[in-house]
Each structure stands twice: as C-alpha cells, then as structure tokens.
C-alpha cells in the first residue's frame, strides 16, 4: 500500500478534524501518501481530491466541523456512480479509503469495498447511534454544548417559575436527551426508544408544583416530536407558563472536548494501523475503553440498544 484517501460524510461532528489530523500524520509517519477528498462522496465522484501533508492538518485539532467539508450524496446509491468513484480513486493511485461519518457513510464504504476498494470507517456523529461502539466522535462535545444551554435555560425558567421544554438532536437515538436530561437534572426525559405519555408528563409537573417546585425541565429528543407543540399542550393542560427551546445545529458546532480530541486521535491512528495490516471493510470503535476494529457488515447489522439502566436511574432521581 502506497497511498490512501480520506473523506468526511454526512452530518459534521466536533472532533472530525482531530480524526483527519491523526489519519494524515499516522499515514505519513508510516510512509504513505495521503489524498484528501472534499465534500464527502459528492466530492469523490466529482474528482475533488488533493494531496495532503503535515501542514495540511496543522492547527485543526481544536476546530469544530470538518476542514474537508461534507455533503449529502443521494447519487451514491447508484452502482454506476460508485463504479465511477472507484475509477477516480484508481486513476489517482489510491489504494484505500478512510471514511469518517455515521451509518449512512459506513454503508457507502461497505459498498465501495465490494467493488474492490479497501475501506475503513471512523464513527463521527453527535447522535452516538452506532451500537458496535460505546461512543462516537462528537457525542461528548454535543452533550456538553447541550448542558451549557440547559443550565442557562434553567436560570430563566426558575426566575419566571415556568416549565421549559428543551429539544435536543436525536431523530432515532435518544442518547443525547438521556445523558443531557440526567446531567441537567430534568424532571422528565423523552426519547424515541421509550416514548412518553402526555397525561403522565402533565401529572408529574402538577405534582411537582404541589410539592413547592417552582420550575420544571423537560428534555425532548427531536425524533419524538416538536418542543413548541409540546410546550403548548403542557401549558394548556397545566395552566403553567411553558416555553420551548430548540437547540438545533448549535449542538454540531464548537471546539471539540478533550475527550473527543483524544478519542478521534486514537481512532484515526487505529484506522491507519488496520489498513497497514491488510484489512478492509472495517470500522473503528471503542469498547470498554479499548480501541477496536470490527467487520463493517457485522457492525451495521447489530440491533441498536438503549441504556435502560441509565434511564431508570434518571427516572428515580428526577422527581
């Protein structure tokens, strides 16, 4: 193996730049050439490749987003498009491809591997929705961003004796809502995995008021519904002034936490190690604080699990 390429795909996540840096510098240290691909799979099929060196990744470890940019690419679902991507990689002398992203990005890597391209995936997504790994790059930073906002909302909510509904990201995975709800002291946490009962929610709020509670914090994952609609329902049913706060894409940005920088660096170095060992169609992860690699088909086939124990703890200590 002489040359590898690297791209970021799907939604951006804090720590992606740290992973890019680790891949590039680990590859160069081991005598490999590196090509960067701009704008994910879209850039790949458009031939947006450029040579990277140590200077290409200087002063990026602390930056959010991705210096390689990212884009959605629905055309990549077509086999003829993927074959063109393979041709472009071969024309540029690329022997292997590192993909940083979520499950959709990994699916693209898997399909490329079936066409003869050596691939390895690094999990970069704030949702933490990949079962094979305990944590994905970006989750810790997004969680801390959410907590910072929640603490501020709590201040004004307490001052006005309101109910606050805070909506965090997580269309299909409730990890951000669960962790942020527990760490933020929420009275009620709503996730796609557990759902919720509106009557039960309102009962909890009214019971809290009877006990002298002057404010309530509700954490809502975006996949369960909208915070604005829920806030209107709660105010109508309880008579308590209720406000909605949608954190939105602020959760994607910002300087990555120390945890995400270290995790990304470890995973980036592991990706290069895996490729040098001759492996292909692998994904990098962390299990019980150990950096691992796993077959991409096996990883994507795993049924996603929800931390029922943590949810139970949150319920027990929230009211």
From TrEMBL:
Indicate the enzyme's highest-level EC class: transferase
Keyword Iron carried by entry: no
At which positions is substrate bound?
125-127, 162, 169-171, 222, 243, 249-252
Q: Where does Mg(2+) bind?
A: 103
**InterPro entries this protein is in?**
ATP_PFK, ATP_PFK_prok-type, PFKA_ATP_prok, Phosphofructokinase_CS, Phosphofructokinase_dom, PKF_sf
The alphabetical list of record keywords is:
Allosteric enzyme, ATP-binding, Cytoplasm, Glycolysis, Kinase, Magnesium, Metal-binding, Nucleotide-binding, Transferase
Pathway(s) annotated for this protein in UniProt = Carbohydrate degradation; glycolysis; D-glyceraldehyde 3-phosphate and glycerone phosphate from D-glucose: step 3/4
- Catalytic positions? 127 (proton acceptor)
Give a yes or no for keyword Metal-binding in this entry.
yes
Q: What is its EC number?
A: 2.7.1.11
> Where, in this chain's numbering, is ATP bound?
11, 72-73, 102-105
Which cellular component terms (GO) are annotated to the entry? 6-phosphofructokinase complex
Q: Where in the cell is it found?
A: Cytoplasm
Query: What highest taxon heads this organism's lineage?
Result: Bacteria
**Activity regulation note:** Allosterically activated by ADP and other diphosphonucleosides, and allosterically inhibited by phosphoenolpyruvate.
Show where the Phosphofructokinase domain sits.
3-275
Name the Gene Ontology molecular function terms of this record: 6-phosphofructokinase activity; AMP binding; ATP binding; fructose-6-phosphate binding; identical protein binding; metal ion binding; monosaccharide binding
What this protein catalyses is: beta-D-fructose 6-phosphate + ATP = beta-D-fructose 1,6-bisphosphate + ADP + H(+)
What does the record give as cofactor?
A: Mg(2+)
- In which broad location class does this protein mainly occur, judging by the first location in its UniProt entry? cytoplasm
- Residues annotated for ADP binding in this entry: 21-25, 154, 185-187, 211, 213-215
Functional note: Catalyzes the phosphorylation of D-fructose 6-phosphate to fructose 1,6-bisphosphate by ATP, the first committing step of glycolysis.
Q: Could you describe the subunit structure of this protein?
A: Homotetramer.
Could you say which protein family the record assigns here? Answer: Belongs to the phosphofructokinase type A (PFKA) family. ATP-dependent PFK group I subfamily. Prokaryotic clade 'B1' sub-subfamily.
Sorted alphabetically, which PANTHER family does this protein's record hold?
ATP-DEPENDENT 6-PHOSPHOFRUCTOKINASE, PHOSPHOFRUCTOKINASE
Protein name per its UniProtKB record: ATP-dependent 6-phosphofructokinase
Q: Which gene encodes it?
A: pfkA
